[in-house]
From TrEMBL, chains A, B:
InterPro entries according to UniProt: HTH_MarR-typ, Tscrpt_reg_MarR-type_CS, WH-like_DNA-bd_sf, WH_DNA-bd_sf
Official protein name in the record: MarR family transcriptional regulator
Keywords assigned by UniProt, alphabetized: DNA-binding, Transcription, Transcription regulation
Bilayer-spanning residue ranges: none
Molecular function GO labels: DNA binding; DNA-binding transcription factor activity
PANTHER family: TRANSCRIPTIONAL REGULATOR, MARR, TRANSCRIPTIONAL REPRESSOR OF EMRAB OPERON
DNA sequence: AAAAAATAGTTGCTATAACAACTTTAATTA
DNA sequence: TAATTAAAGTTGTTATAGCAACTATTTTTT
């Protein structure tokens, strides 16, 4: 039996991800910040001085991507990369004043975004969707 | 109140998408076919002779992406692009013998993949997750 | 029929994502 | 201690994703 595209749950999830990402991208664009760059900034607003490797482990992303994203964040003037004294291989990431200031604008936006996404959904439904998506991830581990 | 990264449902959905896509990518790699290229092939296995614009409308993707993907599919020898006689602006996509043959290998793999993703989940849960994700998409329209 | 608007596709740009191969430095082992 | 192994980051390549601006056609207006 041949399935049509919409029968594939992974395609449905992918489309959902694209919709949500596209929206958050438009919200962040005025601040010259891309969605994944924002995730790195969020980790630094929480605690700065982390190195690239820590970032890549937390975000479950390849270190090459993180390296390129932090280069861009540095070009934009939001962070500075400083060679660690303890381990000369590693680069610590520090917020610039501009980067610190950005947080006060962005954090409310991301919170509002999350509220909007969850609008009309109950806690129970949100837990349910997390549980089911987790199960799907486990299935392909 | 500051949320931690995992509290953002969109980030959770994004990670799920990456996990699933990564798995299907590894399954398709031996056939020299990438996941999104496969979606185009699936549409052509269903009915070939479609033009690029039809593909981009069905897949809800930018026409530039489709153009580049079909160029790659043509380079790989799976399809041929033929200028339409009715409308000289448009390119119709036709399967090559190699492209037709590929379908018999790939379609079972994608069906198995969908079964694996859904393993241990009930019809009710799958409908529920689709309903909730649809609601989230609506929220950001 | 001529002018304007719409459509199909392309090129250039930026961003995300992961893999392989590489350099430099640190930690481990022999 | 010297040799090996591991770790942190970088560079190159391929694929996906969307925006702006462009060419070449076709359709619609005037």
């Amino acid at each position: 039996m041949k399935l049509s595209l919409n029968d594939y749950i992974s395609i449905f999830i992918h489309q959902t991800d694209l919709s949500l990402t596209s929206y958050v991208k438009s919200q962040l664009a005025p601040f010259n910040l891309a969605p994944e760059q924002n995730l790195i900034m969020m980790l630094l607003w929480e605690k700065d001085g982390r190195n690239q490797n820590e970032i890549s482990e937390i975000l479950l992303k390849d270190k090459t991507n993180i390296a390129r994203m932090v280069v861009n964040l540095e070009k934009k003037g939001f962070i500075k990369r400083v060679s660690s004294e303890k381990d000369r291989r590693s680069l610590q990431l520090f917020l610039t004043p501009k980067g610190k200031e950005l947080g006060s604008s962005i954090i409310p936006i991301t919170n509002d975004f999350n509220k909007l996404v969850c609008k009309g959904l109950t806690e129970k439904e949100l837990n349910e969707v997390r549980r089911i998506l987790s199960k799907m991830c486990e299935n392909v581990q």
